[in-house]
Amino acid sequence: MTRMKRFDLRDEIHRLDPEKDCVRIMQILQAHEFPWDMGRALGIALYRTYAVPSIGELLGRTDEFTGNTQKRYDDTALILGDMVRHGFEPGKGRDALRRMNQMHRSYDISNDDYRYVLSTFVVMPVRWLNDYGYGWRSLSEHEISGITHYYRKLGKYMGIKDIPETYEGFRELLDTYEAEHFAYSEGGRAVSDSTLDLMVSFYPERLSGPARKFSMAILDDSLIETFRYEKPSKVWRKGADIAMKLRAKVVRRMKPREEPFWASDNPNIRSYPNGYDPSRIGTFPASCPVAHNVDPVAHQDLYGAGGDPGPAEQEQPIEAGSDPDVRA
């Protein structure tokens, strides 16, 4: 058997079409090349949205991100992860997409807020890996195009209108929206506090103090100021930056990951020790009083003329980390 070389997966991506094969590109990037980094970047992407009052206040009112923080973290990671792992075709990936849209339709969320959240998913992995220099290698323009097309497709299946066509468009949207909308809100601060508490809980208790300071040190000034936190010291800022870049150098010298690492393999996901069904996780709030005449996930271009066939048959729930084809 030929041994995989460090850049073989990158080369495989470059042989793929960034639009037609965007799901496969995301699978390689998220489960093989950068599983830890993509998780951190997408976590920060979601965290940024709390600084927009219309989003932070909504999340604060639901109590899901403050009273059930661990479960909400798990549900988000598993739903997004299942869509990457299984794609949007009939099965678990489409069930996860449907479940996400069902939850979102229970609330009155503006198209502008949807567009902004989508932009964080596109932009933050690129900033983390390339701009901050925390990746063991940089993403190529080809890979960035694949990420962009993946989230454009996801946005279309969510029913989002006026989706940017390019990475540059997403980046401009993110920067402009944050400049115009970042502001303190009680709900956003509460959700931020709960999220930071959860992140710290992933470390041994004796390390909780340094872990919190480290977590704060990798947040940019706009977030620190919006949430009215004390600004991290220059020592912590510099130390965190050096630590992340040293980690990148170490990972660069490691063997390539031949077996995928999916969201369900993450030991920090704790809510489903006996497995989960993607069509049954998440929240089931009361119906939104705002009329929704179109089911975003029932578009004919996704389901065809036959419409939405409903959740896929589930013989047995998937047990996190136990499915033989997802072990790292």
Throw out a few tags for this protein:
mainly alpha, 328 residues, disordered C terminus
Task: Report what the structure shows.
- With 328 residues, the protein is an all-alpha fold.
- It has one domain.
- 56% of the residues lie in helices and 0% in strands.
- The protein is built from 14 helices and no strands.
- The longest helix is centred in the middle third of the chain and has 21 residues.
- The two termini are 19 Å apart.
- The C terminus is likely disordered.
Are there runs of 5+ residues with pLDDT below 50, and where?
287-296, 313-328
Major beta-sheet overview: none
The succession of helices and strands, N to C, reads HHHHHHHHHHHHHH
Roughly what fraction of the amino acids lie in strands? Answer: under 5%
What form results from the Cα inertia axes?
globular
**Secondary-structure content class:** mainly alpha
Helix content: 55-70%
What is the number of strand segments? Answer: 0
Q: TL;DR?
A:
With about 325 residues, the chain is mainly alpha-helical. It is about 55% helix and about 0% strand.
What topology does this entry show?
Blueprint (H helix, E strand, L loop, with lengths): L7 H7 L7 H12 L1 H15 L3 H10 L6 H18 L5 H13 L6 H21 L9 H17 L9 H15 L4 H16 L6 H10 L3 H7 L6 H19 L47 H4 L25
